[in-house]
């Protein structure tokens, strides 16, 4: 590899998807629903597929019908008129939006603050831009006896403040967070926003789980805080919004001067996204735009649907000896597996970190796959993830029951 890319290693996804193919466990690893998306969404794709005019290239920065729908939705949510041509870019998944946001702004030597645990691609993307990641971990507050919530994990304010300096270019925020499920509060976001404004720092806000928030928590878009629109790029994903992860369609929105930089990276690497998927997603958005306040709106019903699954998983993990951290948002649950340590043959695996050994052993010997959270920490803090496993709960009830049965039988 050229020097900039030296040291790149296959990610946890590459490794664990292969592991699942090889051992065929019950897969609660990679995050995707194991049941179909809403019917009107797949019907939209059928309708598009049979339209002879929707199978050629579309506009590079975003299919017109889709950027219109996105502008309409986010103008309402952000409380300002968003220009569909200049202030939105559609991308190949949220991955490409992240890549364009990072490489479109980070110069050699620029520092980028990353909050741990973080979605793992942030770090290599910053390094590919020759930026310097500066990590800060969310740490648990002491909570006696009660079940841990993702809300118990907080930033040390002085530590965060100490990371901001003249070299700081950007902070990457992810709310609701993957893998922890933390939904940042207004107070936390205000603190971050004030630091961004004080030090003239860009905020890259990964909000792919914006609709997956459990009551009574609320998703707050940092771009809506005073003085933040000007310095925020917000990222979303059709995969998460409509439960179609295989569609790999994402987007970014923000002020035109910042979005121009993303558009250039996109233009000169990918140029344009695929037409039928963008058209079908536009149709899906148009439908939801007519019923945003209704409980039938998928943006509202999805978390209502997922809440019992979250409860069920929290319960069976607790009952089988794990210590789960109940997420406020997203569809993952982290749990401390170390109370079960004596039942695991950790020495049969050779990985450096115990969560990798635990999850590999579980996949092979017990038939249940989870993801090792140390993958979501920078090298210096990987120990903080080692005692945990991440399980995904956007699965059919019968498969969650099967996971519970597997663990009951094993423990
Ligand atoms: N950000 C986060 C926090 C994610 O969990 C994911 C997972 N897919 C992505 C970005 C990437 O989304 P996409 O599949 O749309 O590329
Ligand atoms: N976002 C999903 C997860 O965290 C998928 C990640 C991926 O496929 N790279 O599991």
UniProtKB/TrEMBL annotation:
<dbReference type="InterPro" id="IPR051326">
    <property type="entry name" value="Kynurenine-oxoglutarate_AT"/>
</dbReference>
<dbReference type="GO" id="GO:0030170">
    <property type="term" value="F:pyridoxal phosphate binding"/>
</dbReference>
<dbReference type="GO" id="GO:0016212">
    <property type="term" value="F:kynurenine-oxoglutarate transaminase activity"/>
</dbReference>
<protein>
    <recommendedName>
        <fullName>Aminotransferase class I/classII large domain-containing protein</fullName>
    </recommendedName>
</protein>
<comment type="pathway">
    <text>Amino-acid degradation; L-kynurenine degradation; kynurenate from L-kynurenine: step 1/2.</text>
</comment>
<dbReference type="GO" id="GO:0070189">
    <property type="term" value="P:kynurenine metabolic process"/>
</dbReference>
<dbReference type="GO" id="GO:0005739">
    <property type="term" value="C:mitochondrion"/>
</dbReference>
<keyword id="KW-0808">Transferase</keyword>
<keyword id="KW-0032">Aminotransferase</keyword>
<dbReference type="InterPro" id="IPR015424">
    <property type="entry name" value="PyrdxlP-dep_Trfase"/>
</dbReference>
<dbReference type="InterPro" id="IPR015421">
    <property type="entry name" value="PyrdxlP-dep_Trfase_major"/>
</dbReference>
<keyword id="KW-0007">Acetylation</keyword>
<comment type="subunit">
    <text>Homodimer.</text>
</comment>
<feature type="domain" description="Aminotransferase class I/classII large">
    <location>
        <begin position="25"/>
        <end position="405"/>
    </location>
</feature>
<dbReference type="GO" id="GO:0047804">
    <property type="term" value="F:cysteine-S-conjugate beta-lyase activity"/>
</dbReference>
<keyword id="KW-0663">Pyridoxal phosphate</keyword>
<keyword id="KW-0456">Lyase</keyword>
<dbReference type="InterPro" id="IPR015422">
    <property type="entry name" value="PyrdxlP-dep_Trfase_small"/>
</dbReference>
<dbReference type="Pfam" id="PF00155">
    <property type="entry name" value="Aminotran_1_2"/>
</dbReference>
<dbReference type="InterPro" id="IPR004839">
    <property type="entry name" value="Aminotransferase_I/II_large"/>
</dbReference>
<comment type="similarity">
    <text>Belongs to the class-I pyridoxal-phosphate-dependent aminotransferase family.</text>
</comment>
């Amino acid at each position: 590899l050229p020097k900039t890319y030296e040291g790149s290693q296959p990610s946890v996804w590459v490794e664990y998807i292969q592991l699942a193919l090889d051992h065929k466990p019950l897969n609660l690893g990679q995050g995707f629903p194991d049941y179909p998306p809403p019917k009107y969404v797949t019907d939209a794709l059928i309708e598009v597929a049979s339209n002879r005019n929707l199978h050629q290239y579309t506009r590079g920065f975003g299919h017109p019908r889709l950027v219109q729908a996105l502008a309409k939705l986010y103008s309402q949510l952000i409380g300002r008129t968003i220009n569909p041509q200049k202030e939105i870019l559609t991308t190949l998944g949220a991955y490409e939006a992240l890549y364009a946001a990072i490489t479109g702004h980070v110069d050699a030597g620029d520092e980028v603050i990353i909050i741990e645990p973080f979605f793992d691609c942030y770090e290599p993307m910053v390094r590919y831009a020759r930026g310097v990641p500066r990590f800060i971990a969310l740490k648990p507050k002491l909570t006696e006896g009660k079940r841990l919530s993702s809300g118990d994990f907080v930033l040390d304010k002085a530590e965060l403040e100490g990371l901001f300096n003249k070299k700081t270019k950007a902070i990457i925020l992810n709310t609701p967070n993957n893998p922890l499920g933390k939904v940042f509060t207004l107070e936390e976001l205000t603190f971050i926003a004030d630091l961004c404004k004080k030090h003239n720092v860009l905020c890259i806000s990964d909000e792919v789980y914006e609709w997956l928030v459990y009551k009574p928590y609320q998703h707050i878009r940092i771009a809506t805080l005073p003085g933040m629109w000007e310095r925020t790029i917000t990222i979303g994903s059709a995969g998460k919004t409509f439960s179609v992860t295989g569609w790999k369609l994402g987007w970014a929105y923000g002020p035109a001067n910042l979005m121009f930089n993303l558009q250039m990276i996109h233009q000169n690497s990918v140029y344009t996204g695929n037409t039928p998927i963008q058209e079908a997603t536009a149709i899906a958005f148009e439908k939801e735009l007519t019923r945003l306040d209704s409980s039938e709106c998928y943006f509202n019903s999805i978390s209502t649907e997922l809440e019992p699954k979250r409860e069920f998983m929290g319960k069976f993990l607790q009952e089988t000896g794990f210590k789960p951290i109940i997420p406020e948002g997203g569809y993952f649950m982290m749990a401390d597996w170390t109370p079960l340590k004596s039942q695991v043959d950790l020495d049969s695996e050779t990985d450096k970190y115990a969560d990798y050994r635990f999850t590999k052993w579980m996949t092979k010997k017990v038939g249940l796959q989870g993801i090792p959270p140390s993958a979501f920490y920078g090298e210096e803090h990987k120990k903080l993830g080692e005692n945990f496993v991440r399980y995904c709960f956007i699965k059919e009830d019968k498969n969650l029951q099967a996971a519970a049965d597997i663990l009951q039988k094993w423990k």
